[in-house]
């Protein structure tokens, strides 16, 4: 079985590059299951219902998120009606939405869990404590974690702590794809950051001129999503159909 994970989808260029390439990627890599981080898909912050439906119509099985999940007010309501749009499980327990889901595909049970880091991030609960509770009753064949965090060391520490207990830990949030994809010693696939599916000539999705102005002057500056051509960043995870062990993790960049 091959699983595709698409990194942070950013605004219109991210949507366009998915729509353009998803069918060919699924065919080329014989993909059975698709996960995408959609927390920036709506104008660079949040995910409205229209864009949730866009991802579902483009063959995405599960949508993960991060600190921007509730930037669009309507998300607070429609997330209650779906179980395949995840918010970080270690956000406050009173918030709507699920942080983990288990689905059955091709006679395999696949769990997807969404967690958020705490270093340089908004306040959330301890991800270790929350994740231990998820693992207590987990009997899935394959378990993939989207760890949405700023600090590379925090992502690596979490991955090594659960090496051999989960199938993959895939970092998101920084919008820059890292070149450290690997299988850890006990069998868990890991990459520090899957990268951004969004505009190529931009600074993590927004127009460079606005970021440069803020860096030079220190003045408050409105960041506007770039409309330049997009690039899809992702990884393909390949699994042994008998043992359910991950065999390979391959980085993708598609324009």
From TrEMBL:
CDD domains: MPP_DR1281. Fe cation 1 binds at residues 8, 39-40, 175. The keyword Zinc does not apply. It comes from Spiroplasma turonicum. The gene is ymdB. The active site is at 68 (proton donor). This is Putative metallophosphatase. Keywords: Metal-binding. Fe cation 2 binds at residues 39, 67, 148, 173. InterPro entries: Metallo-depent_PP-like, YmdB-like. GO terms for molecular function: 2',3'-cyclic-nucleotide 3'-phosphodiesterase activity; metal ion binding. It comes from the Bacteria.
